[in-house]
Amino acid sequence: MKTNIGIQEDRTQAVAVQLSKLLADEYVLYTKTRNAHWNVEGPDFHNMHLFFESQYGQLDEIIDNVAERVRALGHYAPGTLKSFLQLTHLTEYSERENTSKGFLEELLTDHDSIITFLRENIEPFANEYRDAGTSDFITGLMEQHEKMAWMLRAHLK
Questions:
Q1: Quick one: pLDDT at residue 1?
Q2: What positions does the domain Ferritin/DPS occupy (predicted)?
């Protein structure tokens, strides 16, 4: 059944494409955060293990919400690792030590990249594509990523 929510289909398609890129970024970041949780080493292991667990839990919820937003617009969300790697702006892996500092720096870079991507899409979603709902949605996501990035940055001081 066709989605009839007051936004032209070509506009929802354009928004869905951007949201699919975001979904891929979120999934790659989630995987990298899980990796940090599993593989961090050092004297702060326990605290960092728990910290990374809290962050990937937040990312898991974000992933589900982004995919559901794509579906609410009447489009299909990508759902394979291959499609995520083709769509993402992030790198899958970088060489670093398995220390909290190495993981924190890499994850912070990725959060900052996602924050920039979100910020760049707020106005076009609202004004160019006439989708205030998705514009508001990604504004909320941006705020979540800003808080998560702040937490990562605070560990690096």
A1: 61
A2: 18-157
